Amino acid sequence: MADPMRVRAAENGGIVDVKILMKHDMESGQRKDASGKTIPAWFISTINVKANGKDVLNGQFGPAVSKDPFLNFKYKGAKGDKIVVSWVDSKGDKRTDEATAS
After folding, report:
1. Is the confidence at residue 41, as pLDDT, over 80?
2. Which portions of this protein are annotated as coiled-coil regions (predicted)?
């Protein structure tokens, strides 16, 4: 299981600003190890963000996304919204974390 994500959400004037730092090595499948063998691809493939049970963001990542990706977006919302962030990687590993908009 991956390390917890850092999820921050702050409301200002009816707009919630969400910042997510995901901890993941994000291997592209193009690097080689010390013995010259290709390191297999391993990256976050899908991400879903819900606010109070409603989808506010769905995305797909590929092997070109850097290690420990950072995502920042805004949506119309309110203080107290429950934000749930989930991702699935190319090996099938999953992670879900949540925060409350302040």
Report:
1. yes
2. none
